[in-house]
Amino acid sequence: MTEWTRLPDLASRAVGGGVVWANDELFAERENLVKPAEPVYQAYTFGHKGQIYDGWETRRRREPGVDQAVVRLGMPGVVRGIVVDTAFFKGNYPPFCWAEGAQAEGYPAADEITGWFPLVERSALKGDQKHFFDVTEHRRVTHVRLTIDPDGGVARLRVHGQPVADPRLLVGGIDLAALENGAVVVGCSNMFYSSPNNLIAPGQATVMGEGWETARRRDDGNDWVSVQLAAAGAVRLVELDTSHFKGNAPGWASVSGCDARKDPDAWFDVLPRTRLQPDTRHRFPVDGPELTHARLDIYPDGGMARLRLLGTPTSDGLAHLRTVWAETTS
Q: Are 176 and 234 in contact (CB under 8 A)?
């Protein structure tokens, strides 16, 4: 065990990490790589593709090449060490691996990421064992690409390091759209699979069912949710979280607002229509006028785990909150 294992796992699902791509996952899903729990094994648990493994496992190669998976870190930062765990992969582990990092702006698809640099050189692996690799690269990393040579299974990938926040995202005050702060869903186009109240619920969604998901659209329209904010205010950060929505995330989303104190029908852009990635926590700094209501539009349909609108309440917005407090606590 090395000292850097005490640092947080920047890739963990528990902090928003996700496996955005793998060239192959025939035997076991890539998402298992970043599960926070230790891997487990149950003998004689066979599915349609063979023994079920708690890890990422590719098919046996019959041609030259390697297999790869790209992980988006939940907390970008400086990586100090990487653990490649082949737990329970004994006759089917890869003999070699290496890891690379990248600094990506925004929320690119895996094939749009460029400028990969080495984190771990090509190294030998053993079966059913944790492998600890020191990392000396001091650049901030947003994505890690794990390569296994030539194929096989890896149970977990741990990326330990020190988070480095993007200062452009260190804005806002309270979540004006939070259910616990008094925000209310006042309209919704579709709630076939789950309630839109989930969008503004406290905490992170831990499974898809804890978000909001619509039926599949078969027309040219789009789905939406409107929210009356907890207080009038100026939004400075929009968070659109598609965590756990992989094959059913919206392709795009926009956020608009209105100030009902002035004109409830005068809607304006808070966040213009923006491309989204599946299973990703998106955060966008914005600088718009004050609003009392917000509307999230998703295109064309799908699911969203959370909507956060971080900002500063206006003076009359704070007065409203104090009035509600006084009327309900006396």
A: no
Cα–Cα separations (whole angstroms), residue 100 to 72, 111, 134, 240, 307: 12, 14, 13, 28, 32
CA pseudo-torsion sign 297, 298, 304, 309: negative
Query: How far is the C-alpha of 140 from the C-alpha of 10, rounded, in Å?
Result: 11
Question: What is the reported pTM?
Answer: 0.85
pLDDT score of 50: 81
pLDDT digits (tens, 9 = 90+) for 174-194: 999 998 888 999 999 999 999
Domain extent, residue 108, equals 3-165
Of the candidates 257, 239, 256, which has an alpha carbon nearest to the alpha carbon of residue 304? 239
What's the pLDDT band for 51 if we cut at 50, 70, 90?
confident
Same domain for 176 and 97 = no
Name the residue among 286, 272, 284, 307 with its Cα closest to residue 105: 284
What is the tens place of the pLDDT at every residue in 287-324?
A: 989 999 999 999 999 999 999 999 999 988 888 888 87
Query: Phi and psi at residue 232, in whole multiples of 5°?
Result: -60, 140
Distance (Å, rounded) from C-alpha 310 to C-alpha 307? 10
What CATH number did the domain enclosing 252 receive? 2.60.120.260
